[in-house]
């Protein structure tokens, strides 16, 4: 599921047991909220930790299928990726792979 609009909102769902997908950016948690339709799960809010960058991320479980994690990004980063660890892109239903660097 991918949707996009003029406010640069991108949402996608991934089958994973992880609570947070490492996308290479550093995030600071700034809030959480109980989801009305699904009180078993919290919706967590994150903000990019780079000063001056206004990108926000929202992470929640799919109320219909709790094995799906829904991640929503809002905004565009105004800087390069800031992690030295490069993770392979994670596709739904594929195995989580990462390049281990020694
Ligand atoms: Zn950023």
TrEMBL record:
Keywords: DNA-binding, Nucleus, Transcription, Transcription regulation. It is found in: Nucleus. One of its GO terms (cellular component) is nucleus. Pfam families: WRKY (PF03106). One of its GO terms (biological process) is regulation of DNA-templated transcription. GO terms for molecular function: DNA-binding transcription factor activity; transcription cis-regulatory region binding. Signal peptide: none annotated. Residues 16-82 form the WRKY domain. The keyword Ion transport does not apply. The keyword DNA-binding applies. InterPro entries: WRKY_dom, WRKY_dom_sf, WRKY_plant. This is WRKY transcription factor.
